[in-house]
Task: inverse folding
């Protein structure tokens, strides 16, 4: 099952690597600004960007630390990150291919970890978080950034449904309480949290993932038939654009 799921993830993201490097949605935000602020306090750090995707956390961290290892399941994504780092003249980003649940690093290898918009694709969140904690030194900072699902069951169901229709590698957008519990189980202590709204423009959202036309129609059908409460919660526009919530969890490895 693990290999099968990872194959789906790689198939979804590998061919779209350059789209994620160029994505305006992924290349900015208060969460990236916060990552840079945290990194400034750790100039000698060896940092792991776990599930690096298009590499935007790596690009934000690299100017302030000794080295960043950008780690991702997709080799094509890592090649795109390496090319973009070279284009930006960033010399202290290295790449390493691995699944979050099976990291090829020794215990305590890193002084800081960042994971941005990756965990909702992991087949086993707890295993990935345990691995993240394992490769960190005790007392090291870690920052997890991801989509936060609503607590209301109807809102949660709507979000998971449209996410899965858009991208079959989607596993789950977790609720704030689910994140907090999982991070505690993995051996992290919470230091600070923040949530910000992120508007998603519909056409580019589905194009970036090459969503099949039939699935696009299904998503629009779900949106059109949604209750007024769901439409308000996600601020669903006439063109299908909507807003999601992004959580930032600042932690310390216990």
Result:
């Amino acid at each position: 099952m693990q290999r099968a799921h990872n194959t789906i993830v790689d198939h979804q993201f590998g061919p779209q690597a350059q789209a994620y490097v160029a994505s305006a949605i992924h290349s900015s935000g208060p969460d990236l600004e916060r990552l840079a602020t945290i990194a400034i306090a750790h100039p000698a750090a060896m940092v792991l960007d776990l599930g690096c995707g298009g590499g935007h956390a790596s690009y934000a961290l690299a100017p302030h630390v000794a080295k960043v290892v950008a780690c991702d399941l997709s080799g094509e994504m890592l090649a795109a990150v390496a090319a973009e780092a070279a284009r930006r003249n960033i010399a202290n980003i290295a790449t390493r291919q691995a699944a979050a649940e099976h990291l090829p690093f020794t215990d305590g290898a890193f002084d800081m970890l960042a994971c941005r918009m990756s965990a909702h694709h992991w087949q086993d969140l707890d295993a990935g978080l345990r691995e993240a904690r394992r490769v960190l030194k005790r007392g090291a900072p870690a920052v997890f950034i991801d989509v936060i699902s609503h607590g209301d069951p109807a809102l949660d169901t709507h979000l998971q449904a449209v996410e899965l229709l858009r991208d079959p590698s989607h596993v789950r957008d977790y609720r704030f309480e689910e994140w907090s519990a999982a991070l505690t189980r993995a051996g992290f202590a919470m230091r600070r949290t923040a949530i910000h709204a992120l508007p998603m423009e519909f056409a580019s959202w589905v194009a970036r993932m090459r969503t099949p036309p039939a699935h696009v129609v299904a998503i629009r059908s779900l949106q059109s038939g949604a209750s007024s409460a769901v439409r308000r919660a996600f601020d669903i526009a006439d063109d299908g654009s909507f807003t999601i919530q992004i959580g930032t969890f600042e932690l310390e490895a216990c």
